[in-house]
Design goal:
Blueprint: E1 24-26, E2 31-33, H1 49-53, H2 69-90
Antiparallel strand pairs: 1-2
The structure holds iron/sulfur cluster (2 copies).
One iron/sulfur cluster binds next to loops.
């Protein structure tokens, strides 16, 4: 399941750097989570890091993005492959044209 940030968010900034998927960003008024990037920390940690650290407990599961653990794993693998492709494109291996 992807998580979401409710309007109880106090913009304390602590969750954004903790997300291993760069899924958290500053929205129009409060922080938001990109559901396409949030794996509920599956693939990285046992527990959602943002939930662990949020001082006001305003990060529930998004009812619009209910996913199984298997689906979250697939999302993690997709994100990892995309990140690697981006890194390879930015820095071609030695000997590449
Ligand atoms: Fe990022 Fe994990 Fe929070 Fe999802 S649960 S927004 S992946 S820190
Ligand atoms: Fe908002 Fe919680 Fe993130 Fe702080 S940790 S910015 S209160 S969602």
């Amino acid at each position: 399941m992807a998580l979401m940030i409710t309007d109880e968010c106090i913009n304390c900034d602590v969750c954004e750097p903790e997300c291993p998927n760069d899924a958290i960003y500053m929205g129009a008024e409060i922080y938001e989570i990109d559901p396409h990037k949030c794996t509920e920390c599956v693939g990285h940690f046992d527990e959602p890091q943002c939930v662990q650290i949020c001082p006001v407990a305003c990060i529930p599961v998004s009812p619009d993005h209910v996913e199984t653990r298997e689906t979250l794993w697939q999302k993690f693998e997709r994100l990892t492959a995309a990140k690697k492709a981006a890194e390879d494109a930015a820095a071609p291996p030695l000997g590449a044209a």
